[in-house]
Amino acid sequence: MVLLGAPRWLRSRLTDRFWRVQEVLKYARHFRGRKNRCYKLAVRSVRRAFVKSTKARKEKKRFLRALWITRIEAASLEHGLKYPAFISNLLKSQVELNRKMIADLAIYEPKTFKSLAALAQRRRQEGFLAALGDGKEPEGIFSRIVHHY
Amino acid sequence: MAVAAPTARAAALAPPLTARRFRFPLPGALPPPARAAMASFTKAAQQWATFARAWYLLDAKMQPPGKIAAVTAVRLEGRHKPIYHALSDCGDHVVIINTRHIAFSGNKWEQKVYSSHTGYPGGFKQVTATQLHMKDPTAIVKLTIYRMLPKNLQRRTLMQRLHLFPDDVIPEDIQKNLVEELPQPRAVPKRLDEYTPEEIAAFPMVWTPRKYFTVKTTFHLILKKNIEYC
């Protein structure tokens, strides 16, 4: 049905423009400059922010792992061990803690971390004995591999 | 400090983020750095002890400036602490004394070149390490540390927490702040004249020189003079 006359001008008007604009601006409120107020600028900035956020999800994992490693290195140096020695000997002793847990232990459970460092140091010495010794010494206690399967 | 630190750090509570500039949740928000945020009243002293900025002393006498700078840069950044985070501002102060007496290995005093440009044409200046050290005894250590710090805006702030003194003399107000002396990175060997005669006598001899092999007879031997020896 074709509308003729005055009603044709009033066919459809956008009534919820305010909310459509707010939908975008609410993500831009903490930005700096006019892009936290003006829709045209905000649309671009918000889209870039979302894109960066999406890409950053992969980088976050890298960043956090690097942070954990830095923290573990600092804590293990306090106990006289370097990070590679600490981690490799912990793995050889079948302590399968990931870096996140070890970093949290280093901050919140210092005595536990100290015992982990002592374990790694002991396993390291046993490794040296096995490699450099005569071969006549008994094999190290912490070097024993326990099969759980 | 080293004994108190592990237990002191034990209760840095993961802070609920107090509003500084960030609002939760941000897209791609990272976990907040452990920093001086609201913890309970009973843990206040522990939190202060954990996040306090310490002052360390380092003696640079007979030390290579590179090793000094490596240790110092780590301390300035705060990377020696398990609570490290780049945004936490958890670095410490470092006071380095005796920078006049640093010791480069090899021929670096003559061969190492420090370059700069004044900005004007023809203003490219190159000085050897010796010349720079003569002009300013703290410059070498300062430049080495500056170049080892992360290249961001925090670098200048960290350099302000570094205090260099060419000799043993430290101002009183800095001396009052010092907490711990860091061990020197290089073990300084003793000179021959620093050994006591008892130590020299106690040192085991590798071989017994025959009584004819004195300096004089060896000298004649080298000049191939006929000399009776047995």
Radius of gyration of chain A: 30 Å
Q: Nearest-angstrom radius of gyration of chain B?
A: 27 Å
Strand fraction of chain B: 5-15%
* Most extensive interface, chain pair and sizes: A-B, 28 and 22 residues
User: Using DSSP, what is the number of strands of chain B?
Assistant: 6
Family (chain A): Belongs to the bacterial ribosomal protein bL20 family.
InterPro entries (chain A): Ribosomal_bL20, Ribosomal_protein_bL20_C
Organism (chain A): Dromaius novaehollandiae (Emu)
Pfam families (chain A): Ribosomal_L20
Q: If you had to describe this structure to a student in words, what would you say it looks like?
A:
The complex is a heterodimer of chains A (149) and B (230). Helices cover 62% and strands 0% of the residues of chain A. Chain A is mostly helical and 149 residues long. The radius of gyration of chain A is 30 Å and the shape is rod-shaped. Chain B is of the alpha/beta class and 230 residues long. Helix content of chain B is 33%, strand content 11%. Chain B contains ten helices and six strands, in the order ααβαβαββαααβαβαα. In chain B, the strands form two sheets. Chain B has a four-stranded parallel β-sheet with strand order 5-2-1-6. In chain B, α3 (65-77) crosses α6 (139-148). The longest helix of chain B is centred in the N-terminal third of the chain and has 13 residues, at 65-77. Chain B is flat, with a radius of gyration of 27 Å. The N and C termini of chain B lie far apart (65 Å). Residues 1-32 of chain B have low confidence and may be disordered. Chain A binds chain B through residues 27, 30, 49-50, 52-53, 56-57, 60, 63-64, 67, 70-75, 77-78, 103, 106-111, 114, and chain B through 2, 5-7, 9-12, 21, 23, 27-28, 30-31, 34, 79-85.
